[in-house]
């Protein structure tokens, strides 16, 4: 197989993986809304579902053009608001598996300079992994996902932390390697894509984890030089 063919296969695999995430989210939201939509005002859920469909369409377009760098330009985005959206996106799973979301937001942290859809793509992957880790937990612990923002050493930090099943050091060492996964499902591409997107934004993504204790992902991004 030529290098070009391998490149095409990788591209297609990435596309399939990333399209599944927003479509799965939309499906979950529609399942949540279906019995109550007529009777109860749930505009925020409907708006969010439409936003996810649009995001899926943009992902398809970007990958069809065979170049992840051709995605929309960066702009100032409220990171705290994006993290609040994560709570809505995964509300169905949180209710089913009794997962608690906790937030610790820096009130003075307003915006980051990112491509909104790409940064949201990263957050969806990280929160999805946290949910899946908590689903694996069999003991009686309170299942928690904590979303944090703060500013340290002239960088904006975004933290996604869970107290789920955790990972050993061997898994951590290969975590961002394309196609590496210990799951019985999935492609092993999610975190490698996250790393690529964060680095594209001149940022850094790191992870700490302990088996049967939990996992913490931290994203560090430059502070925007021009904030309205």
TrEMBL record:
Keywords: ATP-binding, Kinase, Nucleotide-binding, Phosphoprotein, Transferase, Two-component regulatory system. It catalyses: ATP + protein L-histidine = ADP + protein N-phospho-L-histidine. It is an enzyme of class 2 (transferase). Pfam families: HATPase_c, HisKA. This is histidine kinase. Its EC number is 2.7.13.3. Signal peptide: none annotated. InterPro entries: HATPase_C_sf, HATPase_dom, His_kinase_dom, HisK_dim/P_dom, HisK_dim/P_sf, Sig_transdc_His_kin-like_C. PANTHER family: PEROXIDE STRESS-ACTIVATED HISTIDINE KINASE MAK3, SENSOR HISTIDINE KINASE. It comes from Robertmurraya beringensis. Residues 14-225 form the Histidine kinase domain. It comes from the Bacteria.
């Amino acid at each position: 197989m030529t290098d070009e063919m391998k490149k095409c296969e990788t591209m297609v695999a990435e596309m399939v993986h990333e399209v599944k995430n927003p479509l799965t989210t939309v499906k979950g939201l529609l399942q949540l809304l279906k019995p109550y939509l007529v009777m109860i005002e749930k505009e925020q859920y409907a708006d969010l579902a439409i936003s996810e469909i649009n995001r899926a369409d943009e992902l398809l377009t970007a990958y069809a053009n065979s170049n992840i760098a051709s995605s929309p330009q960066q702009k100032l985005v409220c990171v705290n608001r994006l993290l609040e959206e994560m709570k809505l996106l995964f509300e169905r799973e949180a209710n089913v598996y009794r997962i608690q979301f906790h937030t610790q937001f820096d009130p003075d942290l307003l915006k980051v300079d990112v491509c909104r859809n790409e940064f949201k793509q990263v957050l969806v992957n990280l929160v999805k992994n946290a949910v899946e880790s908590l689903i694996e937990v069999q003991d009686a612990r309170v299942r928690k996902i904590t979303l944090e923002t703060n500013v340290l050493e002239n960088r904006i930090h975004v933290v996604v932390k869970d107290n789920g099943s955790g990972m050993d050091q061997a898994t951590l060492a290969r975590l961002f390697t394309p196609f590496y996964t210990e799951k019985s499902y999935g492609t092993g591409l999610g975190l490698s894509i996250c790393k690529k997107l964060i680095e594209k934004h001149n940022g850094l993504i790191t992870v700490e984890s302990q088996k049967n204790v939990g996992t913490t992902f931290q994203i560090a991004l430059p502070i925007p030089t021009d904030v309205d």
